[in-house]
Design goal:
alpha+beta; five-stranded mixed β-sheet; globular; 2 helices; 26% strand; 19% helix
Length: 150
Amino acid sequence: MMCISRVLIKASLLYGWIMACAGCSLETPPKPVPVSGVVMLNGKPLTKGMISFVPAAAGEGASRPSTAMIQPDGTYKATSFKEGDGLLVGSYKIVVTSDAQSLTAEEIAAGKKTVSTIPKAYTSLTTTPLSLEIAADATPIEHDVDLSDK
């Protein structure tokens, strides 16, 4: 009789765990809003680099960070879950990075630093003046980013 009770308890716990996990997978994931645009530097398309969208608020309920590679024509498409799907609802700070040259593994190991092709203010969360707000009722957004060293 004692063994049957233990088996029933273990089976009940296992069943509860399976149901809890199944419930988690039934939740509808948030739907990103497509965000794309052109990154310009002093009026000309930036030909390489990365643009990052970092949630302005941290903690529970914060948006998901997003990145996009800048294409040779300056265009980008923000990615949160799958390529080009966009950004979740929320406020973002925008950081842009672009290096003048790529370094080899040997150069990095030797301590050589890359040289940024854009003004330093845009490369850090603490100094970037760039931001973007995605509203709950937003439709696809075309958000061009104009960087200036003036």
